[in-house]
Structure formats: C-alpha cells, structure tokens
Design brief:
The protein has 4 helices and no strands. The protein is mainly α.
Length: about 100
C-alpha cells in the first residue's frame, strides 16, 4: 500500500527512472504473402475444415479429404523448410531474457 511508503522511497532516483521508462513502439508484424500465406492457410484452415466436416457429419469425397490432408502436410513442410537456420542476432545465444 502507498501508506507504507517512507519518505526515503519517494526520493529514490532508481524508482523514478523505472517509472518514467516508456518502451518504444514495436514494429508492425509482417503479414504472410504468396506461398507462405497458402502454407499458413493449410496449417490453420485444413484441420478446421476437417473438424467442421466431422462435427456436422458431412461426408467429404475422398479426393477432397486427401487434398485437405496434403494441404496441411505440404503447408507445414513448406513452413519448416523456409525457417531461418541461424539466430536473428548472430551474437545472441538466447541466454538473456
């Protein structure tokens, strides 16, 4: 509670600096385009389509079912294959939070 604060806490420069810090605005998140958008669509929409078909008891033709499964597997494989191999910052080992 604020009533427990002492007068020494009010004059602490470190506390004032921490309260005054305003983080910078993060950059906008890039949206996927082209093949990456199709891959994300397969990974996210494919299972959703299959779940909706199962919940509504709609029987999909075998060709459509295989196409959706291929879309999911192919999209996942594409996303894994195009992942960056190294860290974003070569000097960063990930040890600092």
């Amino acid at each position: 509670p604020e009533s427990d604060r002492t007068s020494a806490d009010d004059g602490d420069a470190e506390t004032d600096e921490a309260e005054a810090f305003v983080p910078p605005q993060p950059p906008p998140v890039p949206l996927p385009r082209g093949p990456r958008l199709a891959a994300w669509g397969g990974v996210l929409l494919g299972p959703l389509l299959m779940l909706l078909a199962a919940l509504t008891r709609v029987t999909l033709p075998p060709v459509v079912g295989l196409a959706v499964v291929a879309w999911v597997v192919g999209g996942f494989a594409y996303l894994v294959a195009t992942m960056p191999r190294g860290p974003r910052d070569p000097g960063d080992d990930g040890a600092v939070v």
